Amino acid sequence: MKPVELKNGIYWVGAVDWAIRDFHGYETPRGTSYNNYLIVDEEPTLLDAVHLDFVHISIENITRILEPQKIKNIIINHIENDHATGLEKILEYTPQANIYITEKGKKGLSKFIDLSKYKVNTVKTGDHIKIGKRTLHFIETPMMHWPDSMFTYIKEEKILISQDAFGQHIASVERFDDEFINNRSMDELEDSVIDYYANILMLYGNVIKAKIEEIKKSGVEIEMIAPDHGVIWRSHIDKVISLYSDMVEAKAKLGAVIVYDTMWHSTEQMVFPIAKGLEAEGIPVKIIKLRSTPKSVAIKEIWKYRGVIVGSPTLNNNIFPSVADFLTYLKGLRPKNRLFSAFGSYGWSGEAVKDIFEYAKAMKLELFEPGIRVLYKPSEEELNKCYEFGIAFGKALKEYHAKF
């Protein structure tokens, strides 16, 4: 794709990755983009690099606008590999450029690049540089979602370069939110925002909440938010900020997600009467079978709904591997304000349900115990008990949801 102008003299010069489907273990069915930005001013300034595999495209885009050697400043908002591995190649064209980065960013980046060869300046919240007609203000955002992260605010243009915040993993020909919505839909864009937040930023909710409040109190005016992935926000800024505000509060719909896997279908047979019991209580149900569904999809659905029920057979005195993998992933994201229960089948030992609850206790979720388990194949009586379990969980879920 060619460069795209955001505002007069400010360009997107990134690359679109149509093929990626695994982003450090997080499934990306829509692909992604690596966004970086070039400001043409008295001191031409590049904001962020891109993934090494796509840096040649970014350099080509820069070259369409000016000779890369003319770049005077490079801002590094985030040093994760998908943003910073292409930096060294860019520096071959711009060895005299001033690099601006946080102190923690410098420390981390020095593990990948010999920074002693370059002019590196560390910055913190409140610092700014003048590049001609424009002023760049720096806002540290540690743990959103790495310790080095920061935003760059272009004051005169009211553009917030937000690195990973407000991004989405979307590969598209549309560069702006209104274009994407016109050609596709707001629902798809919102789903991508939720998917991205749930799988990458969920555990940093308190940090994000504080930073949003800090920016609001500062009186910073924002007419455009330009993240490092996905489309650029220019028409629905209030919408995405409101969406983030809801997400950091762990708001959820009344509903339940049943996430399970099965070995010889016994656990699977328990799913459907549980779901019918929930439905009898008026609870919307989403059923997700692991090994058939990416775990990132399960995480997104859990983010949407208040109730979570996890099912697993017991294998070798343990949780079934795909379910254990999912629970480990979920635990790392630290969900909150969810009612949780478990079910499963077993042959002789039956530890899986108990062990699933241990994960939930570690996540400090509200528990609906003791769950339900059956020996070998569920009988008709046991299937009826699964139905009753679904009804009981549904009643408890309505009471729990009413607290929020």
TrEMBL record:
Note the CDD domains from the entry: flavodiiron_proteins_MBL-fold
State which Enzyme Commission number(s) the record gives.
Answer: 1.-.-.-
Q: Outline the extent of the Flavodoxin-like domain.
A: 256-394
User: Organism source for this protein?
Assistant: Thermodesulfovibrio yellowstonii (strain ATCC 51303 / DSM 11347 / YP87)
Give the similarity note: In the N-terminal section; belongs to the zinc metallo-hydrolase group 3 family.
Keyword Ribosomal protein listed = no
Q: What is this protein called?
A: Rubredoxin-oxygen oxidoreductase
Name the top EC class. oxidoreductase
Recorded hits in Pfam families, A to Z, give: Flavodoxin_1 (PF00258), ODP (PF19583)
Q: Which PROSITE patterns match?
A: FLAVODOXIN_LIKE
The record's InterPro entries line, in alphabetical order, gives: Flavodoxin/NO_synth (IPR008254), Flavoprotein-like_sf (IPR029039), Metallo-B-lactamas (IPR001279), ODP_dom (IPR045761), RibonucZ/Hydroxyglut_hydro (IPR036866), Rubredoxin-O_OxRdtase (IPR016440)
Keyword tags: Oxidoreductase
Q: Does the keyword Oxidoreductase apply?
A: yes
